[in-house]
Amino acid sequence: MTTQDLRSWIAKMDAAGEVQHISGAGREEEIGGIVDFYQRKAGNQAVLFDDIPGYPKGHRVVANILTSIKRIHLTLGHSADASAIDLVHFWRKHMKDAKAIPPQLVKTGALLENVSEGKDVDIFKIPVPKWHELDGGYYIGTGDMVVMKHRDTGWINYGAYRVQAHEPGVASIMCSKGKHGDIIMRSYHDKGEPCPIAVVCGMHPSLFMIAGLEIPYGKNEYDAAGGLIGEPVEVIHGPKTGLPIPAHAEIAFEGFVYPNDLILEGPLGEWTGYYAGGLKKEPAIRIETFMHRNNPILMGAIPGVPPDDDSFYRGTYRSGAVWNQLEAAGIPEVKGVWAHEAGGSRLWLTVAIKQLYAGHSKQAGLIASQCHAGAYANRFVVVVDDDIDPADMDKVLWAMCTRFDPREDLEVLKGCWSTVLDPMVYSENDRRNARVVIDACKPWHRRDTFPQVVRNSKDLDERIRAKFAKFLPRT
C-alpha cells in the first residue's frame, strides 16, 4: 500500500479513532443526510460508508475528511496535538520554503485495475450520492482534482471544481470566471478546439488540499503536491488525453469539453451555505475513458453551511497566505491572520497587528481585502490590535464593540471580485460584490490614553499558576 493513496490515509485515521464506519446508508438521501449531521460541528469524525444498497460490498464513499484540525495535522504528518495556529504557521513557512518536486511518470498503477472506454463507460457504477436534499443531481466531483493542460504554454494545472454526473458517459464542470480551469478551457475554445480534461475522484487528501489552494498562475499543482508530501507524485498518462493522473487514485475519468457544448447543471448546496447558482448551463464533459480500482472509494468534500468539508481546511492555509502577502506588500508587525470557517474561509478575515503609525491598521485591512489570497468572495476584513487573538471570535467581537467607531473606521469597497456562488453578488451576469473593512484597533491618537483592559497582569498570572496550577482550566 502506497502512502500516496486514499486507503493509507483511511487506515491512519482509523488507527487514530478518527473514522466512523456506517453500513447500509442509501445514496439518494441517507449518505448526504448523515454527512450533514457530521459537518454541523468541526472536529467530528470522518465517515466511511459501505454496504450501499444497489452496489457491491466494497464500493465505498468517504466524507467529512478534513473538518478536524487533528486530521489535517495527521494528514500532513504533524503531531495530533498541534493547534490551529500551528497550522497557520506551518502554511506560512511551507509557502516560503517548500521545494517544488515534479511528478514521476510510472508505467502502471492501481487506478488501471478496471478500465472502460467508449460505450462501455458508466460512471454510475460508482455510488455517487445526492449530497443535499435539493441538489439538482449527483455530484461525483466534490473532493476531486480536475486536471487540464494549457493549449499554448503546456502549463499543467489541477483544481477542485464541482463535477455533476448526468449520464453514463456525460458529466459537467462548473468553473468560476477567472479561475485557472476557466482560463485553460478558453485557451482551446477561443480557437474552436475541444479541451482535454481528466477528473480524479478519490486520492490522498494531501493532493486534494493542493487542488483547493491558490497556487500561482502558471505553476504546476503536482510540483506543489510533491513538495507538500516530500516525494514525487506518481502519475500515469491518461490513455486518450495524455494528461497526468495519480497512479494510485481510486476513480478517474477523462475526455473532452467541446466549444459551446453546454448542459443544464445544478443546483448544488455550496460553500456559502446556500443553493447558490441555480440551474444553469455549464460545459459538458464527454467521457472517453473511465478507470477505477477494485472496490473503489469515492471521496466527498461536501460544501454546505460552514464549517464544511469544502472550506474548513482552507482557512488555515488562507490565513498563512494572506499573512505572507501582507508582509510582501510591506505591512509591518502583522501578528496574526484568521480566515474564519463561518465564512467558508473566504468571507471573513481577521488581521491582528501591532500599530506602528497612524493609518497602519486601515492600510493592513485594505490590502488584506484585495491581495490575491484574500480578494475572492470576501465580505468582511476586521483589523484588531495584537492583544486580540484573531481566531477567538469572542475577543474579535469585543474589539469591534469597544474599539470601532462607525464614523471613522468603516470602509465600504464596491465592485470587488466574487462569484455567482455568493448569494449577495450583484447579479448572475455581474459577479462582483461589495465588502467592508473594519478598523477595530484602538484609535491611534488615543493609544496612550485608551482605558486599560480588565485582565490579570502577566506577573499575577505567573504567581497564580505557580500556586494554583492544578485548579486552573487548561485554556
List the helices and strands and how they pair.
Elements (H helix, E strand, L loop, with lengths): L5 H10 L3 E5 L6 H9 L7 E5 L9 E4 L5 H7 L8 H14 L6 E2 L8 E4 L20 E4 L3 E5 L6 E4 L2 E6 L2 E5 L5 H10 L5 E6 L4 H7 L9 H9 L4 E4 L6 E3 L4 E7 L4 E4 L14 E13 L4 E3 L12 H17 L5 E6 L8 E6 L6 H11 L1 H4 L4 E6 L7 H11 L6 E8 L14 E8 L18 H11 L7
Parallel strand pairs: 1-2, 3-17, 4-12, 19-20, 20-22
Antiparallel strand pairs: 2-3, 5-16, 6-9, 7-8, 7-11, 9-10, 10-16, 11-14, 12-13, 14-16, 15-16, 18-19, 21-22
Helix pairs in contact: 4-8, 6-7
Describe what is shown at a glance:
The protein is built from twelve helices and 22 strands.
What does this structure look like?
The chain is of the alpha+beta class and 475 residues long. It folds into 2 domains: 99-299, Electron Transport, Fmn-binding Protein, Chain A (Pnp Oxidase, Chain A, Roll), CATH 2.30.110; 312-446, UbiD C-terminal domain-like (3-Layer(aba) Sandwich), CATH 3.40.1670. Helices cover 25% and strands 25% of the residues. It contains 12 helices and 22 strands. It has helices spanning 6-15, 30-38, 69-75, 84-97, 180-189, 205-211, 221-229, 312-328, 360-370, 372-375, 393-403, 458-468; strands at 19-23, 46-50, 60-63, 104-105, 114-117, 138-141, 145-149, 156-159, 162-167, 170-174, 195-200, 234-237, 244-246, 251-257, 262-265, 280-292, 297-299, 334-339, 348-353, 380-385, 410-417, 432-439. Strands 5, 6, 7, 8, 9, 10, 11, 14, 15 and 16 form a 10-stranded antiparallel beta sheet that branches. Strand 12 (234-237) and strand 13 form a beta hairpin. Helix 6 crosses helix 7.
